[in-house]
Design a protein that fits this description.
Blueprint: H1 2-26, E1 49-51, E2 54-64, E3 67-68, E4 79-80, E5 86-96, E6 102-103, E7 109-113, E8 118-119, H2 123-128, E9 143-144, E10 149-158, E11 166-171, E12 181-185
Antiparallel strand pairs: 1-2, 2-5, 3-4, 5-10, 6-9, 7-8, 7-11, 11-12
Length: 188
C-alpha cells in the first residue's frame, strides 16, 4: 500500500510540474526568460515596428558625404559636411496610433552602433535634406495628429562604417520599457 501512495504522490508532483511549465511557456504576456538579452529579433528596412503609441518604419537609407541646401535660397551655395565621417539619411514613416496629437523630439530617435554609442539626428542637416521630387518634411518640429502619419528624413552624422554596424532606435518617449522602444537593423 505504501508503494502505491509513493507512486501516486510522485505522479501528482510530475503532473503539477508539467502544468506549471506549460503555463509559463504559453502565457504571451510574460517575457520569455529563456532568451538571452542579446538574442532579440530586430526588424529590417520596410518592417513597421510599434513602440508604445508610435509606429516606425524605415523606408530608405542613403549615405552622403555632404548635403547642399536646396530649399533655402540664402544658403544654396553652402555645403554641410559631416564631422564624424559620413551622413546617414534615413527616410522614416511615423504613424501616431494614439487618440491625441504628438510632437516628436530628437531623443526619441537615434542610431546605435555596435559599441552601444548613441547618435542623435543632426538638426541642421535634417533641415537641408530632401528628395528632388518631394517637398521637405521635417519630422522633429511638426506635430502628428491623432492617428496621423508623417514621412520625413532624419540625418545622422556618424563614423564611416558599414551600415551593418548601426541600428535605428525609436521610442514612444513616455516609458522606459521594452514595449516602448524598437530597434531596426539598417541592413537586411
Amino acid at each position: 500500500m505504501r508503494i502505491y501512495l509513493i507512486i501516486f504522490l510522485l505522479s501528482l508532483m510530475f503532473l503539477t510540474a508539467c502544468q506549471a511549465s506549460s503555463n509559463a511557456v504559453s502565457d504571451p504576456n510574460e517575457p520569455n526568460t529563456f532568451l538571452n538579452k542579446n538574442e532579440t529579433k530586430e526588424a529590417t528596412l520596410g518592417d513597421p515596428q510599434i513602440a508604445g503609441e508610435i509606429e516606425y518604419e524605415l523606408l530608405n537609407i542613403r549615405q552622403e558625404t555632404s548635403i547642399q541646401s536646396d530649399f533655402d535660397e540664402k544658403n544654396k551655395s553652402k555645403l554641410l559636411t559631416p564631422k564624424n565621417g559620413t551622413f546617414l539619411v534615413l527616410k522614416v514613416k511615423v504613424h501616431n496610433r494614439s487618440n491625441e496629437s504628438i510632437r516628436l523630439s530628437t531623443d526619441q530617435m537615434s542610431l546605435i552602433d555596435l559599441n552601444s554609442k548613441q547618435y542623435l539626428p543632426d538638426r541642421i542637416a535634417d533641415n537641408w535634406v530632401k528628395e528632388d521630387s518631394e517637398e521637405h518634411v521635417e519630422l522633429l518640429s511638426q506635430g502628428i495628429s491623432a492617428h496621423g502619419t508623417r514621412i520625413g528624413y532624419l540625418v545622422f552624422d556618424v563614423p564611416n562604417q558599414s551600415l551593418a554596424n548601426y541600428r535605428f532606435q525609436g521610442t514612444d518617449g513616455e516609458k522606459e520599457t521594452t514595449e516602448s522602444q524598437i530597434h531596426i537593423q539598417l541592413t537586411p
